[in-house]
Amino acid sequence: MEVLEDLYSAISENIELYQELNGTVIEELIEEPSALEFMRYVSKNRPFVVRGGTSDWPAITKWNMDYLKDTMGDSSVKVAMTPHGNADAVVKNETDELFFVKPLEVSEPFEALINYIRDQELEEEKSQKAVKYAQTQNDNLRGEYSALLPDVESNIAWARVALGTGAEAINMWVGNSLSTTALHKDNYENVYCQIIGTKTFVLISPLEALCIQERSAKAATYVLEDEHQDLSDAKLKIKEDDPSEEIPCAIWDPDEPTKDANQYASLSLWFHKVSQTCGPEAICCAVNYWYDMSFQGHFYPSTCLIRDVSKLGIEVTAPAPLPNGLESAEETEESTEESTEESTD
């Protein structure tokens, strides 16, 4: 037990040192970085924001309900459904068992999906209907949403040059304010681009992984309570995956920070929780570019070591120096608790 306490103390001091050296303010740029400037952020594994980074994209002026429906029409798209908008999230059942629950995935015409998303957002009293959104991270903008691809960049030039490769995936996200992405991390350099509405990111450095209280949970999926029911009024339940599988996931639920339309963000391996608010037409749209990250050097093995230590049963109950979301310079001046970020995962 004394060894564990010493280990806890050493890691806590390491977290404090990291915050002292790096601060808790995300750097904001007013123009796109060069490839060299971008690599400096990658080498330090620090996220940053580019204000107005997508302002000259056709999507910024063209994307609205009418344009999206005219362009996509009745094309079939993958739709994620959850009871409360909590895809890929940790949920307790009635006996307090932990499950990592994936959304029910169905296919629907795009026009029906976006109408549902808008109508649900506009309801004065939110119904108990399932929350729907488009969130497949499978290069869907070059697949089922390819009709919209000409409205955005086919690659982020400074990221492509710096990393020496094109985007492995370009992903489209469409939803409303009811959906939330649980705290997680991605093993990619992620350039996140907000098109409609606002995204709120809570970011936690991979060096602070001990604080998220990562534990294993049983893998499960939302399924229809009645397989014959109408999807417009579907009731969902949790079903454990077969064969059974244990998924490592964050138990700690942080809140809360922001990123408006016309912006880039970037961050690899950082834990992040994401929520959103809608634009004037009650929808939210974003596009993110995934680039392969390098696993060479000491950084990735070091973060794996910290994650492994966290599984020894040491729990950090977020004292003052521990993660509380990173703050943008602007929000810090306004003494708010929120933080705006654009990040590369």
Q: Low-confidence parts, pLDDT < 50 over ≥5 residues?
A: 314-345
Helical fraction equals 10-25%
Overall number of strands: 19
Main sheet: strands, sense, barrel = 7 strands, mixed
What features would you describe in this structure?
With 345 residues, the chain is an alpha+beta fold. It is built from 8 helices and 19 strands. The strands form 4 sheets. A 7-stranded mixed β-sheet has the order 9-18-11-16-2-1-19. A hairpin with a 5-residue loop joins strand 5 and strand 6. Helix 2 crosses helix 6. The two termini are 36 Å apart. The C terminus is likely disordered.
Which terms would index this structure?
345 residues; alpha+beta; globular
Task: List the SSEs and their pairings.
Blueprint: H1 2-22, E1 25-29, H2 35-44, E2 48-50, H3 58-62, H4 65-72, E3 76-82, E4 86-87, E5 89-92, E6 98-102, E7 104-109, H5 110-122, E8 131-133, H6 157-163, E9 169-175, E10 180-184, E11 188-196, E12 198-204, E13 214-224, E14 236-240, E15 246-250, E16 263-266, E17 271-277, E18 284-292, H7 299-310, E19 327-328, H8 329-333
Parallel strand pairs: 1-2, 1-19, 4-10, 6-13
Antiparallel strand pairs: 2-16, 3-7, 3-8, 5-6, 9-18, 10-17, 11-16, 11-18, 12-17, 13-14, 13-15
Helix pairs in contact: 2-6
